[in-house]
Amino acid sequence: MTLDGLWRELQDLNENEIYTIHKLVQALKRTRESPLAYIEEMMHFQSLGLDQESGAYIHRMMVTDELRNRLGILHGGVTATFIDTAMGSTVFQDMGIERGAVTLDLNIHFLSPAREGWLTAKSHIIKKGKTIVVLETKVTDEESRLIASASGTFYRLKK
Q1: d(CA 46, CA 81)
Q2: Domain assignment of residue 37, yes or no
Q3: Tens of pLDDT along 110-139?
Q4: What pTM did the predictor assign?
């Protein structure tokens, strides 16, 4: 694909589609300077750290038009990606980033549709071994409605 070819592709887009393309390009550009991957930038992923009172690691994401499915609700795969990313971030925050971690297992219960606004994931470490970490995460919307609950197992890679 050349710039000329891309320009031709853009010619028949409506105003909303042009705005969406602009947001996608901005997210792509942010990945040049951000430690976040492209999809995390698209989710407006935020790590708020450990809540000392509850013992949960808190993460947020924004539901946007680009992340909704044809029913107007957050795509289940994006919800799963948010949970997986929040759990992975929790492992790194709790145990350090010296070693990588990968998902071994992720079980999600989708409980309510997410339509708009910020979602909050609260992740707890249930069991922590030398290489295996088990977590639970609950995702709520701005009205504190439970959107999803999940359990996951992560494997900490060796150096």
Answers
A1: 13
A2: no
A3: 999 999 999 999 999 999 999 999 999 999
A4: 0.85
Using the 8-state DSSP alphabet, how is residue 3 labeled? H
The answer to whether residue 25 is domain-embedded is no
Burial class (CB in 10 A: 0-12, 13-18, 19+), 32: exposed
Q: Are strands 117-128 and 101-110 parallel, antiparallel or unpaired?
A: unpaired
The Cα–Cα gap between 159 and 5 comes to 44
Q: Which residue range is the domain that position 58 belongs to?
A: 44-156
- 68 secondary structure, DSSP code: B
Give the number of other CB atoms < 10 A from CB of residue 53.
6
For residue 77, the SS3 value is: helix
Rounded distance, CA 14 to CA 68, Å?
19
Strands lying side by side in the sheet with 101-110: 46-51, 56-63, 117-128, 132-140, 146-156, 101-110
68: exposed, middle or buried (Cβ count in 10 Å: 0-12, 13-18, 19+)? middle
User: CATH no. for residue 91?
Assistant: 3.10.129.10
What one-letter code names the amino acid at 16?
A: N
